[in-house]
Amino acid sequence: MRILNNGRALRVVIVGAGIGGLTAAAALHQRGFEVSVYERAAQLGEVGAGLQVGPNAVKVIRALGLEAQFVKLAAEPQMRLSLKWDDGTIRAQEPYGDSMQERFGARYYMAHRADLHGLLRSLVAENTIHTGAECASVENLQQGAVVRLADGREVEADIVIGADGIHSVVRAALFGKGEARFTNQICWRIILPMQELHDAADKLPIRLTGNEYTGWLGPTGHVLFYPLRGGELLNIFAGRVSNEWADETWAVPSDIDEMLEAYAGWHPGMLHILSRAREAFKWGIHDRQPLEHWVAGRIALLGDAAHPMMPTLAQGGAISMEDGYAIARYLDEGRDNPVEALAAYERDRQPRGARMQLQARQQFLNNQLVPPPPPLPVDWIYGYDAVTSELRPLGAQTNVAPT
Ligand SMILES: Cc1cc2nc3c(=O)[nH]c(=O)nc-3n(C[C@H](O)[C@H](O)[C@H](O)COP(=O)(O)OP(=O)(O)OC[C@H]3O[C@@H](n4cnc5c(N)ncnc54)[C@H](O)[C@@H]3O)c2cc1C
Asked: CA-CA distance, 228 to 392, in Å (whole number)?
C-alpha cells in the first residue's frame, strides 16, 4: 500500500472501466495505491469488435505482466497488404511479425476487445470496481477531490482520474461540455468465423491464411480485414466517407444490404466476404479538437476523455493504455505531491495526444486522395515506450487550468 507522509494510503478514484481506466487501475494497484473504479454500465464489458494493438501498447501489456496470456488470445499478422478497392491489385505491402519487434521493440497484435479488457480486469480486485455507478460531476476540494454519482452518492479521493470516454462528464466538469465533432466517417464492424470463409478464397486476390492484415483503400472509404484469436476469427472494419449521417449515437444496428450498397463497385471478392455478415453495427465516428489542458488540480483526464481521435491510426486504445501507465508512474514519483505529479503528467502526455489526434485526421484526408500518398510516419508512435520514457521533472512549471 502506498503510504503518504501522514501515514495513510493515497486514494485514487477512476471514473470509467474501459481499456484506459483499467490500465491505470492495474498500474496503480501494482504500485500499492488504493484504487477504486466507478463504471456507469451495469456490467463490465466491451463491444464485440477487434482492436489493433500496436507495439507501444504491447510494451504496457508486458510491463503489467500480461504479455504471455495476451499473446495466447491474440493474433499476430505477418504482413500488411494494401489493395486497390476495385481490382484488388496490391498497392503496397509491408512485413509485420519480426520486423515490428526489430524496429520498435515489441510486436503488433490484433485482439478481441473483450479479451484485452478481461485481462486488464484480472489485475484489479473485483470489489474495487463499482458498476452501475454513473458519475454526474467532479470537483476539486481544499484537500482532495470529490466524485458525485447520479444516484446521489459522493466519493472522496486524493486524486480523481476521468477515463470516461469521448463524452466524458469529468472533462465537461473541468473544461466545459462542447459537442464532439462528426468526422464525416461512418463505419461498420463485423466479426466472422474464419472457417466459414474458406469457400471465398478463390474470389479473393489474396489468401486468407489468418496471417495477413489487409486494407482495401478507395477514395470513398477503406475496409480492413484482420485475424483475431490465432486466426479463428476474421475482424472487419468497413469505413466510409459520408456527409449524411451526423448522428451523435455511438452505435446503431444496421442493415447488411445498406452496408453492401455503400461499397457498390468495390472488388467482388471483398463484397462476398462482407455479404457473409449476419449482423452489423454502424458507428458514426466523432473526435474533438486537441484540449490544451488535461489536468485541473487533483483531477486528470486520460484516454478518449482527453484526446478522442479518429480510428485511422488504430491508436486510440493504445495511447489510452500509455496514459494509464504513465499516470501511475507520475503519481508514484510524486507520491507526496500528487498535484505536481499530475501537472508533470499533463506536460509529458498532452503534446503526444494532440499530435496523434491531428495525424489521425490528416491520414483520413490523405486516404481520400487519388492516388493516396504513402502513409504518414508512425515510427514516433510505435517506437515510444511509456514504461521507460524519461519522466518530466516535477514542479518545474505549474499548470494554470480552471477548476
Ligand atoms: C471504429 C473504431 C475502431 C477503433 N479501432 C482501434 C484500434 O484498432 N486500436 C486502438 O488502439 N484503438 C482503436 N479505437 C479507439 C479505441 O476504441 C478508444 O480510443 C478506446 O476505447 C478509448 O478507451 P477509454 O478507456 O479512454 O474510453 P472508453 O473505451 O470509451 O471507456 C470509457 C468507459 O467509461 C464509462 N463511462 C462513460 N461515462 C461514464 C460516467 N459518466 N460515469 C462512469 N463511467 C462512465 C463507459 O461505460 C466506458 O466503460 C477504435 C475506435 C473506433 C470508434
From this structure: 37
Output the DSSP codes for 246-270. ----SEEEE-HHHHHHHTTTS-HHH
The one-letter code for the residue type at 162 is G
Residues 6+ apart with CB under 8 A from 59: 105, 106, 385, 386, 387
Binding site membership of 51 for ligand 1 (Cβ less than 6 Å): yes
Which residues are bridge partners to 34 per DSSP?
Answer: 11
pLDDT one-digit tens code per residue, 59-71: 999 999 999 999 9
390 DSSP assignment: P
Separation of alpha carbons 243 and 122, rounded Å: 41
The pTM score is 0.95
With a CB cutoff of 8 Å and minimum separation 6, the contacts of 399 are: 293, 295, 296, 343, 346, 347
71, amino acid identity:
V
Is 382 designated active site? no
Q: Which of 213, 226, 325, 384 is catalytic?
A: 226
Cell, residue 57: 501498447
Q: What is the C-alpha to C-alpha distance for residues 244 and 96, in angstroms, rounded to an integer? A: 36
pLDDT in tens, 138-169: 999 998 999 999 999 999 999 999 999 999 99
